Amino acid sequence: MMCRPNPPERAAMPDRILIVKLSSLGDVLHTLPAAQLLRRAFPEATLGWAIDRGHADLVRGQAFLDRVITWDRNGLRSFSRFVAELRKTRWELAIDFQGLLRSAVVSRLSGAQVRVGYTPAREYASLLYNHRVPLATMDRHAVDRSLDLARSVCEAFSSLPPVHTQPSRYDDFPLPATAEVRAAVERWLSEHNFDRSRHRLVALNPHCRKSANRWPAERFAELAVRLAKREDLRVVLVGGGIARDLCEQIALASGRKIWRADGQFSLLGTAELFRHCSAVVTGDTGPMHIAVAVQAPVVALFGPANPVRTGPYSKEAIVLRKALHCSPCFARSACPLGHAIPPCMGDITVDEVVQAVEQQLEHDIGSSNLRKTA
Considering just the CA atoms, what is the radius of gyration of the chain in Å? Predict the structure, then answer.
């Protein structure tokens, strides 16, 4: 049964609505379907999004948004400018999809008369809301939890019938690419002599912000070597600038049989590259959700995290995970049991990953037809 904000009676439809989802990469992507649900429910409202500058490219240019307010987290002065920019619009309703103290504070400082969020929330964030939606369970995907929160807002504040507030599709993660982004990716592929009529591209994303989620570098190197033996496959390492050292280690160990795209592209550039891929192998990290957003075939390697909550939001994705007695433990950096490599990650074999990649390649329609375009 859907939980409604308190108090339960229907209020007047708001004219100015603020979405608060500051970070991280995956969390922002998980909120896109809920944001579009709000647009359908409040077609005439000004709809804004408060977000960290590092992730703002994911929401800039989205047709369903009217305003994007960015925070660069560079100290008190930058925060003051962020709040001042927020308050240029007299928000009536702020929805905190993040559920942390900092996002609740942003909701409060926005000046919105009504502030909605889940309860319970981490760091006592719900104390700063005046409309609270009971959270029944965390063991539900983040996309669905965001949609549930948006539906609760729609039921309380929208005059449209429920059918008009339902999402048109559950995989609705628009990532618009500019002509410049498309040209940069096409240029990179051309420089590497990628021929769509003969080649298929497999991306390896080895870096995870939470180090406990990383599959060992030597396994990625072995995987790259084995995949590169196929004449029809081209293997590329991807990741942001922070991944360069790890990618260099893997490239050296694999005898430089693979291409390097780490640090080469923006978030939207990475999304565009994934549109050309016939498979993406990744740990539990933001680029995994980018690959899902553009409907690239994904092989996700899961260890300490729970894929029910944050796994790839796709029925076609393959999740490799060892159901150990100690998992999921949600470790971020070190194994709580003292293992140098968490067994939940270390027990995933190269053979298993190769088999999963081959399964995705078998079912893929081919990289000659680009997937979901902007």
Answer: 21
